[in-house]
Amino acid sequence: MRRPRDMQDVELVEDDGSTFRPPGNPHELAAGDAAPDGTGSVDLLRTGPATRRRARRWRPVAVTVAVLLGLAVVVTDRREAHRLAALRDVPGMLAPLDRPVAELWRFEGQLSEMRGIGGLVVGPTSEDDGGSEIVALDPLTGRAVWRVEALPPGEQGRQIFCPDSSYPGVPDGRRDDPVLACLVAHTTLTQKLPDGSLIQGPGDVRLLALDTATGDVLQDRAVGPGATVTAIGHDLLITDVVLGADGVDHVQVVRIDARDGAQRWSFTTPGGVEAADEGWGRVGWTSASADRLVVQVASGTTWILSADGELLGSWAGDSPAAEREPVYPFPGRDLLIGSTPDGERTVLLDPETGRSVAVKGYPATPTPDDGSLADLVLTQVWSDGTDASGPTLTAFDLATGDELWSGSIVDFGGLAVLDGRVLVRGEDAVSSLDGRTGGTQWSTPIERPGWSQLVTDGRLVLLALPDAVGGPVVAAYAVVDGRKLWEVDVGRVDTLWVIDGHLYAQSDGDLVALG
């Protein structure tokens, strides 16, 4: 064996360009000989000066094509990166996933009204012994950063309610609210209605305000059984019923500093209000929309206040919204949205002018909604006026109230709006609809129908699907064409939802983080 350092004689052979030896072929082929693969004459392999000139002319073209293809890939990747970055701050949008999900951690206990505040997952627990704590969890580890007892163990039926200030019932995205406000009903009262039936409602109620960073109790005070509370920055808006000098009930809104309880201002509705049909419960509501406050009463009258409590405008219940449920800020629009008590019509209100539009159906609020269909409103319409047939997804023009399309999706569940398309989980399929026409872009059958909320990261649609043999899975579908990309077994998963870009599931009564 030759040693690596042995010197060798090397003979340099000058090539006159008359013949060409293919790389890796040690045999010299003369013109007219057969090619080694038997495909023809070796003349095809000859490269004289003219041939090399032609090759040199083609080489820049090939390089240019390769560069252009590379640039196209880079531009596409950058556009996709910009698109995903823009979606990151959309409420309810999942952070991009680069692999199938798996369980990251598990919190033993059920959290209700969870939300992301200051980088933590915060919500009240519901214990079997009737007690309840308000807990803040680290979203990366599931460790309890702080916990505060809200209800000691005791009788069942007591309530704790921690409302979101802007979008009740809708994931509120990334928030840094310094104060969490909750209403805690320590007792329940049984009332007899005129028809003789009995109902239960809150008895002794207290307002509990916490510092979201530390869990320190800022306020702990008694309020009326019909009170509501809204947290705005370091302040609290407390809405309650008070007896006026005229001997009738009025709704009063008081703004206080949660840190020291100092009152900033108060507003009392000019006219009297009536209690709800049940004879108890919330009569007035206050919600926040940008720099405006919306005060409402059950009778339908609405007042618009500035952040300083100045009355900007009001309108009474003499519009299509006369008999309605509370209206709340419509995400991504300068409007308020609600419904009539029977759920058959959706009400849209312009807080600047008092103008209202009512359309068929109950609000179908997409989550997430990137605002690409901001001039539409989606509702769910029952064709025969009953729940038997399931609702049909319907779109209306936001300005005129005209119906634009009524989709083929019946009995649908989760909705999302993304890049002008409506992603929807129907009874037996997950589909993508053109938001302008309602036309089906793609539809993928669901082998195991379920009722999970639809979640998306902008590239994938995720569903929790029950398994035929009792082993549910989380399945992912491509947003662009509906192809199923993967499914994983992560244990029993009842539903999915997103907080601050993180994915969570309720599993066997526990909170589970997936990622």
Automatic annotation (TrEMBL):
Pfam families: PQQ_2. Residues 1-42 are annotated as: Disordered. Signal peptide: none annotated. The chain crosses the membrane at residues 58-75. Residues 132-312, 392-513 form the Pyrrolo-quinoline quinone repeat domain. InterPro entries: PQQ_rpt_dom (IPR002372), Quinoprotein_ADH-like_sf (IPR011047), WD40/YVTN_repeat-like_dom_sf (IPR015943). Keywords: Membrane, Transmembrane, Transmembrane helix. PANTHER family: CELL SURFACE PROTEIN, OUTER MEMBRANE PROTEIN ASSEMBLY FACTOR BAMB. This is PQQ-binding-like beta-propeller repeat protein. The lineage of its organism: Bacteria, Bacillati, Actinomycetota, Actinomycetes, Micrococcales.
